[in-house]
Amino acid sequence: MAISRPTVAQLRAFSALAEHLHFRDAAAALRMSQPALSGAVAALEDGLGTRLVERTTRRVLLTPAGERVARRAEVILAELDRLVEDVRAVQGPLVGPLRVGVIPTVAPYLLPVVLPRLAKEFPALELSVREEKTGHIVAELLAGRLDVVLLALPVATAGVTELVLYDEDFALVAPAGFQVEGQVSREALRDLDVILLNEGHCLRDQALDVCRDVGARAAATYATSLATLVQLVSGGLGVTLVPETALEVETRRAPDLRVHRFAAPAPFRRIGLGFRSTSPRAHEFEVLAASVREAVAESGVVPGVRPA
Question: Which of 198, 201, 206, 197 is nearest to 134 (CA)?
Answer without folding.
Answer: 201
